[in-house]
């Protein structure tokens, strides 16, 4: 039985990934280029600074990554403030909280960005006791390095191997696997074939865990989930 759960944020608990993709593309189009879906897929789950660097360098844009981010900032902040919850996310967090099960978030988002994205969902985000953001002063390396998951486990007071991670991005899954944790992937359909073969389970939605016919006891079944076809 796992002793704690760690969640990603973007694309896992909140449906922000389409917003991020659209805004990155809009900013790139200001310089006469468009981001193709394959390139967009490689950017999912990475910190905004790293994503901006990859876009600027790959597409040879006439701005610095910092300048690209400055253009993006007001656009993305206005849109992610309206981010809806992913199906099953609030219900899962609330169910685990009722069982006094330790929960944490490990997100590449900065603390200010995290506050904006979650402001309309505080009734369930406040139930998650630990949050590690991408700008945490104790975080040395971002995803796909495992550091953020190790830091979350440390603050929960749980060993890495006793943590269960829910992730949607390929880079996040790799980071959690390298951290030595059990990983349940809830990927974008376009990413299913790109997941590392070591991933423990793959779900279509967090809402799958709330299907009482398939999972009559939520916690008991967390360690006995069927691997769904990719």
Task: Give an account of the 3D structure.
The protein is an alpha/beta fold and 230 residues long. It is 40% helix and 10% strand. The protein is built from ten helices and six strands; from the N terminus they run βαααααβααβαβαββα. It has helices at 17-29, 37-43, 48-59, 65-80, 89-98, 111-118, 122-125, 147-156, 170-178, 218-221; strands spanning 4-7, 103-106, 130-132, 163-167, 182-185, 201-202. Strands 3-2-1-4-5-6 form a six-stranded parallel sheet, with helices on both faces. Strand 4, helix 9 and strand 5 form a beta-alpha-beta unit. Helix 1 (17-29) crosses helix 4 and helix 3 crosses helix 4. The radius of gyration is 17 Å and the shape is globular. The model is unreliable at 225-230 (pLDDT under 50).
Labels describing this entry:
single chain, globular, six-stranded parallel sheet, alpha/beta, 230 residues, disordered C terminus
Element layout with pairings:
Elements: E1 4-7, H1 17-29, H2 37-43, H3 48-59, H4 65-80, H5 89-98, E2 103-106, H6 111-118, H7 122-125, E3 130-132, H8 147-156, E4 163-167, H9 170-178, E5 182-185, E6 201-202, H10 218-221
Parallel strand pairs: 1-2, 1-4, 2-3, 4-5, 5-6
Helix pairs in contact: 1-4, 3-4
């Amino acid at each position: 039985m796992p002793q704690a759960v760690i969640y990603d944020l973007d694309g896992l608990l909140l449906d922000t990934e389409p917003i991020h993709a659209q805004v990155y593309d809009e900013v790139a189009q200001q310089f006469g280029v468009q981001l193709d879906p394959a390139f967009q897929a490689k950017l999912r789950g990475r910190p905004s600074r790293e994503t901006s660097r990859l876009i600027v360098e790959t597409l040879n844009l006439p701005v610095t990554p910092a300048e690209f981010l400055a253009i993006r900032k007001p656009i993305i902040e206005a849109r992610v403030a309206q981010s809806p919850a992913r199906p099953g996310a609030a219900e899962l967090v609330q169910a685990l909280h009722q069982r006094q099960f330790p929960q944490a978030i490990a997100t590449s988002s900065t603390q200010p960005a995290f506050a904006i994205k979650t402001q309309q969902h505080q009734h369930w985000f406040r139930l998650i006791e630990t949050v590690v953001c991408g700008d945490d002063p104790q975080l040395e390396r971002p995803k796909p390095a495992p550091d953020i998951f190790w830091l979350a486990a440390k603050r929960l007071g749980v060993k890495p191997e006793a943590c269960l991670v829910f992730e949607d991005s390929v880079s996040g899954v790799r980071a959690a696997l390298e951290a030595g944790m059990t990983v349940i992937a809830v990927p974008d359909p376009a990413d299913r074939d790109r997941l590392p073969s070591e991933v423990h389970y793959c779900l279509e939605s967090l809402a799958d865990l709330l299907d009482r016919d398939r999972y009559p006891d939520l916690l008991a079944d967390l360690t006995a989930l069927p691997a769904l076809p990719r």
